[in-house]
């Protein structure tokens, strides 16, 4: 098993520090990933991240048509919320929780909110891909 190097998880706090235009929080919390690596090992973390990425990819494909059916939207948002919490994808979890709550109560979810969720989901998938690519280094 490859030893976890702490510098691997030393992500900047915001995108601006990476040369990005905005000051938003990065998709994955490094302390959560470190804890997972300690708990399940580096190889286990890589496998779990791969499954998380696959799950997010499937949900992303279903998210747009689901918007018309509040029960299905609530279910998909719940899947996103639960998985995101495991990997420290806090912003994605919070957005999904809000959409899940509104969909369950029958409140309409504006298209702009779904687009924001999709954008954060894509950012999170990119962060997971980067984490997988960095695995074992």
Automatic annotation (TrEMBL):
GO terms for biological process: phosphorelay signal transduction system. The keyword Phosphoprotein applies. GO terms for molecular function: protein kinase activity. It comes from the Bacteria. Residues 37-135 form the HPt domain. Keywords: Phosphoprotein, Two-component regulatory system. The modification Phosphohistidine is found at residue 78. It holds the Pfam family Hpt. This is HPt domain-containing protein.
